């Protein structure tokens, strides 16, 4: 189901990592990263390889917040409710790219929803009992 089957060269992908491509080409590669597992692995290798070089692609990505998933997507990722490809992309984004912004977002989401199910059902009960009181009060 991959629309884009362009064979990118390492040079092109490196240019992508350094944001040296036209916006349109950047967007196409991002789209491909979200949907193509093999492609993602290849870019991961390239990133890992470059981490040892003078410039870290991860740093560039971190600096530019490239392809950050939305907060909603991060929330679904936490709950495991994403389609596999997108879940893996986010994993890639968090672990390979090491995006601090998204990690912070994720921590935030985790702590706000982590209150265990117990807390939630307590809240729910509280809500229901308040509603009940309002209704009986009328
Ligand atoms: Zn991010």
Textual characterization of the structure:
Helix 5 (71-79) packs across helix 7 (100-114). Helices cover 73% and strands 0% of the residues. It has two domains: 1-64, no CATH class; 68-138. The chain is mainly α and 138 residues long. It binds zinc ion. Zinc ion (ZN) binds next to helix 7.
Name the descriptors:
138 residues; mainly alpha; 2 domains; 8 helices; 73% helix; binds zinc ion
Order of helices and strands: HHHHHHHH
Judged by helices, strands and strand pairing, the structural class is mainly alpha
Evaluate the radius of gyration.
21 Å
List all distinct small molecules, including ions and cofactors, that are bound in this structure: zinc ion
How many domains is the backbone divided into?
A: 2
Number of helices: 8
Mean pLDDT across residues: 75
- Uncertain segments of ≥5 residues (pLDDT<50)? none
Q: How would you sum up the major sheet? A: none
Number of strands: 0
Quick summary:
The chain has 138 residues and is mostly helical. It contains eight helices and no strands.
Write the layout of secondary structure elements.
Layout: H1 10-17, H2 23-35, H3 37-51, H4 57-64, H5 71-79, H6 84-95, H7 100-114, H8 117-137
Helix pairs in contact: 2-3, 5-7
This protein binds zinc ion.
Zinc ion binds next to helix 7.
